[in-house]
Amino acid sequence: MHPPASHRMAYEAFVQALQPLSLAPLWTEYHRLLTPAPQGKARPHLWRYAELRPQLLRAGELVSTREAERRVLMLLNPGLEGQIAITPTLFAGMQLLLPGEVARVHRHSPAALRIIVEGKGAYTTVDGQRCFMEPGDLILTPAWSWHDHGNPGNEPVIWLDGLDLPLIQTLNVVFTEHPTQAQQQARLPDDLSLRLYQQPGLRPPAPDTGPASPLLSYKWQRTAAALAALPAEAASPYDDLLLEYTNPHTGGPVLPTMGCTAQLLRPGVQTQAHRHASSSVYLVVQGRGYSVIDGRRYDWEAGDVFVIPSWAYHEHANASPHEAAALISFTDAPLIRSLGLYREEAHPGGHQPLA
Ligand SMILES: [Fe+2]
Ligand SMILES: [Fe+2]
Q: Which of 232, 76, 72, 216 is nearest to 145 (CA)?
């Protein structure tokens, strides 16, 4: 039975009268808001290094670091139109620093991490400590730490920047400072934190550094050796051989808002599919393979970047029968876990049907 026309007209007039009062009925939006599972707009996507790299080098010809502040090509999620984000919480960009260049010092409340893609000889100075970059290294710049980049070497250096910028924007707590000088004094020994945390399981007396890791640099050489030394029994059905980068003082994630993992997919390995309530960005460090995300296959090779949105099923495969493939990822999982909202589930069929 339909309501009488008089009721319908009264209802429409009522709804129209709400708008100028900045009011709206919840009941028309209720099911759109409280969905049974995440319904985000972020989509899985892959950026090919073979396509990205020439554009970044072109930016190097056209834009100086002085003009740019940071010469970064942002990796924008095609599902998040109009937003500067790779997932609703994470930002990713590919940055180029040419020989002789500096990217001047600043600090901001969003935290950042770098995963080096190509080149060596450049450094990031973090609160007075230079951290030198080599391919596969992870370098942290925790929230509000002074940082600048320099390349005194003779080759272009390219790295993937990961930030929690969209999250910090949503929370409306973005703060930034630009001092007048171009670079900060390297007042501490180079790579000091690497020397303080040389030996896994041993650490100097706890500094009062807040929630971020006081170890600022994680060398790929050490990470690769640790992964290669893992026995087959350590393999996870969803990630094969995986290690999480940790804060050596807490054993927890490297940053309160972002965590990082490194993983080795052994030759021929195909993992099972699962999904979790966190989003991740992956950099392919070595090898070739593919990931199936939300039923679609994304083939990747070294330098490629791909994104897995929250609650999207995913599985990884190393197609090579001989060479191991290595991935480093950053994720908002620590944030989600700290709110008690993390959950994870296996795909009921083990693998996804391809769309
Ligand atoms: Fe920065
Ligand atoms: Fe996963």
A: 216
